[in-house]
Amino acid sequence: MLLQRLYRVTNYRILQRILYKNIYSAYKKESGMQAVRKLWVTSPFITMGMWGFIKSKDEAETPITTKEVLLAKVDALFDQGDYKSIYNLLSNYKDSKDVDILWRLCRAIYKMSEMASDVEAPKLIYEGYDLICIALDIQEDHYAVHKWMSIFLNSKGTLEGTKAHIKELYNIKKHLLV
């Protein structure tokens, strides 16, 4: 690493000398054709001098994976309020055992259940609850999984009645405090 930096600094100073001697003096003393000829001769040195400053692919940022692109697209769709598209997009990946995909899918299912009819909403709540349970089994320390688990426990308790809701309140609190 030190040698690379030393090479870059040395290469940069050589580049400055070449440019100063050839180009500046060419514009000062000589005709236009000679300046073009000297510029043409020094252009490989300019390229070599810049070669040390350009980052290689290893030093560049890590490439964006398809998962990151998918999650960014899903988050953008969520901000737009297009929950059905999120559901259609992520339902293909629900068997992938990826926690980030599962909790985002559950989030979309919950938002869809808020706008669904009285017949469709319980089906969506139970589907989301099953998926968030799978996500919790995969990774127990993910904050979003616990958040959405508490939300689904609350919704499920509301559907099942007051007695079931009271029984689940301790679990809801436990997931919110994790």
UniProtKB/TrEMBL annotation:
It is found in: Cytoplasm, Cytoskeleton. It comes from the Eukaryota. Keywords: Cytoplasm, Cytoskeleton. Its main location: cytoplasm. One of its GO terms (molecular function) is microtubule binding. GO terms for cellular component: mitochondrion; mitotic spindle pole; spindle microtubule. PANTHER family: REGULATOR OF MICROTUBULE DYNAMICS PROTEIN, REGULATOR OF MICROTUBULE DYNAMICS PROTEIN 1. This is Regulator of microtubule dynamics protein 1.
